[in-house]
Amino acid sequence: MLRDTHVTLAHGGGGQAMRDLIEEVFTAVFAPPGMEDQARLEDPRLTVPGARLAMTTDGFVVTPIEFPGGDIGKIAVCGTINDLAVGGAEPLWLSAAFIIEEGCEVALLRRVVASMAAEAQAAGVRIVTGDTKVVGRGAADGLFVTTTGVGVIPPGRDLAAGRIRPGDVAIVNGPLGDHGAAILAARGDLALSTDLRSDCAALGHLMEAVLAAAPGVRAARDATRGGLAAALNEMAGAAGVGIEIDEAVLPLRAEVRGLCEILGLDPLYLANEGTLVLFVPPEEAPAALAAMQARPEGAGAAIIGRATETRPGRVEMQTLFGGRRIVDMLVGEQLPRIC
Amino acid sequence: MLRDTHVTLAHGGGGQAMRDLIEEVFTAVFAPPGMEDQARLEDPRLTVPGARLAMTTDGFVVTPIEFPGGDIGKIAVCGTINDLAVGGAEPLWLSAAFIIEEGCEVALLRRVVASMAAEAQAAGVRIVTGDTKVVGRGAADGLFVTTTGVGVIPPGRDLAAGRIRPGDVAIVNGPLGDHGAAILAARGDLALSTDLRSDCAALGHLMEAVLAAAPGVRAARDATRGGLAAALNEMAGAAGVGIEIDEAVLPLRAEVRGLCEILGLDPLYLANEGTLVLFVPPEEAPAALAAMQARPEGAGAAIIGRATETRPGRVEMQTLFGGRRIVDMLVGEQLPRIC
After folding, report:
1. Sequence-ordered list of residues with C-beta below 8 angstroms from that of B271, at least 6 positions apart, any chain
2. B45 with B154: CB under 8 angstroms?
3. Where does the PurM-like N-terminal domain start and stop, copy by copy (chains A, B) (predicted)?
């Protein structure tokens, strides 16, 4: 029985205290299959001829650990699911590794774990294996979570940035920058009172709906660190195409626009955690857009631009004032520890 | 081009600086397949009817980051391979996620990455995907690495602690406690000059050799945090058997024995990073032992005890002095941040 209210170094030591923490806080909620050192897994989709296994990993160090619209656990589950989904993979299984600073509240851990379990269940994914380590005070900042996801790419599906062709249409599923803006506001350094919430959401079901409606989708990316600008630059570079977007049609909440104006931030570089951009041949764009808009996480979907033959590797924006500007990648980022 | 000698927050920001760090330090060495957000993988062994996928994850926070016999990268690769191998899985792919403290030397990162790549290659495993995050000074301790491993369990193979039966023989592949003792000495708090080296090693090839020679192996565990004592207690509990070991035959280096005597430590609880314990029916014990001894990482293999019907769930040791004592699990551990 775990009686402690705070995590101590003993909880990381491999002994009875660690077992109590793991069993009560983690495995009681995640209910992983079996109790060996590894999960042992089967899924008939993996053995279909031509199916491929997708694997991705992400470490999460977001501060604050809990914020409007999510917490480090929700973001870890959603972020890893999204990395699988934008590649056309159906997410199957997640691992979760926790690095905990001595003194971390057990109640906080329980909330994070509950949030992960709920998000995984909604996405139809299982958290099948995990690990906990404890480090002394000052050797970490509260809690870090690393999730790894395994999924299956059905035969014949091959989303890749390199497949984008001039003329393809760029679509996003919703407003830009909500996550970055919400984190910034939640840090409390600014005396701003806002209703901003992170867009943190799992996009596996959305991607499946889009791919069913528009099987010709070329590529998708979730616009996390570095924002939409980083995702588009990476895609332009990989495909050797130019990308033009139109500022007038970029979906943006009034609160995010306002925050950016006050602080001199550019929403194109703000991180998102439930926002993807995809490219689709023009004839399939209406179907892709409609499939997105039919789902809550795509309700704010919009066509934002297209791939061009001119200026390969470059992203340009038609501004509100009728000018054009290059949307470059930042060297660093506007905000550290956004995810 | 990466010109910096130390990691800054900009290297975690999702922009050009991050891309430079990732491309030069990580992907140039790991050479993952493709440049999408996810690895896309195929292996014919995964589609054999009855094959199962094995998945395991571990976070590594060992201090010091480099120590005699290894570093955090080697231990991360070996530890995850071993968690797969002791379950009977053939390791296939690893992910690696790095949480880096601002100010970490780029040269240190390069050494850790080189060490991971070398160890993975020797084990026949590929590091296929990864992630880096940077946190400010004081928000982490140098470098944390989380690895996740995926492997395949061939059809019909089912190692599990619950399968151990009274009469089964316990075998370890080499001396106990080398890793814990080497880390303790490397921390330099003791004015001890020793030749101790961590036993850090990947045991995938060893397990395959043992399973070929002794297909009846019931279960195996790597004796990491909590040492041999934790591994045996866990196995005794899962199988509902007693376990008896004999102190006189436990393989132990003179230096480790000496260090334990000076410091009042018990080598049964010292962590290992290349040491496993397995249980095998008595008629297959000679073959399993010989298969281990034929390999360098099993050269010091020894039969150390057996499972019994008496005292289910308990581990007992016949001591050097002819007495018996219970080998319990510790509540915490003797040393924090051992892996």
Report:
1. A14, B177, B179, B180, B183, B223, B224, B225, B226, B227, B333, B335, B338, B339
2. yes
3. 49-153
Of the residues B4, B57, B334, the best mutation for testing chain A's interface (the one with the most A CB atoms within 10 Å of its CB) is B57
Element spanning B152, H or E? strand B143-153
8 Å CB contact of B331 and A17: yes
pLDDT per residue as tens, chain A (339 positions): 788 999 999 898 777 888 899 999 999 999 988 766 789 999 999 999 999 999 999 999 999 999 999 999 999 999 999 999 999 999 999 999 999 999 999 999 999 999 999 999 999 999 999 999 999 999 999 999 999 999 999 999 999 999 999 999 999 999 999 999 999 989 877 777 788 999 999 999 999 999 999 999 999 999 998 999 999 999 999 999 999 999 999 999 999 999 999 888 999 999 999 999 999 999 999 999 999 999 999 999 999 999 999 999 999 999 999 999 999 988 766 678 999
Q: Could you tell me which of A70, A69, A91 has the C-alpha nearest to residue A204?
A: A91
**What class does CATH assign to A9-153?**
alpha beta
Question: Is the Cβ–Cβ distance between A203 and A85 less than 8 Å?
Answer: yes
Give the DSSP per-residue string, A164-230.
--TTPEEEESS-SSHHHHHHHHHT-SS-------------HHHHHHHHHH-TT--EEEE--TTHHHH
Residues in A 116-145 with any Cβ partner in B closer than 8 A? 128-136, 138-141, 144
Beta bridge partners of B302: B172
Distance between CA atoms of A29 and A96, rounded to whole angstroms?
A: 13
Tokens of A143: 């809690």
With beta carbons less than 8 A apart as the criterion, state whether B176 and B224 touch: no
What is the number of alpha carbons within 13 Å of residue A29 lying toward its C-beta? 20
Q: Hunting for tokens 């008629």 — which residue is that?
A: B283
Catalogue the E-assigned strands of B223-335.
242-246, 276-280, 302-308, 315-318, 324-326
Beta-bridge partners for A107:
none
A206, two tokens: 């959305």
Helix (H) or strand (E) holding A180: helix A178-186
Chain B: residue whose CA lies nearest to A44: B47
Evaluated on CA atoms B230, B234, B235, B236, the torsion sign reads: positive
* Residue B234 amino acid letter: E
How far is residue B195 from each of residues B67, B201, B258, measured CA to CA in Å? 12, 18, 12
For residue B168, give the amino acid letter.
D
**Beta pairing class for B70-71 and B324-326:** unpaired
Token duo for residue B234: 């866990």
Distance CA A117, CA A122 (A): 9
Closest CA to A154 of A49, A43, A278, A41: A49
Strands (E), A136-282: 143-153, 169-172, 219-222, 242-246, 276-280
Domain ranges of chain A: 9-153, 161-326
Q: What is the DSSP string of B156-188?
A: T----GGG--TTPEEEESS-SSHHHHHHHHHT-
The class level of CATH for A161-326 reads alpha beta
Q: How far apart are CA A117 and CA A98, in angstroms?
A: 14
Chain B contact present for A155, CB below 8 A = no
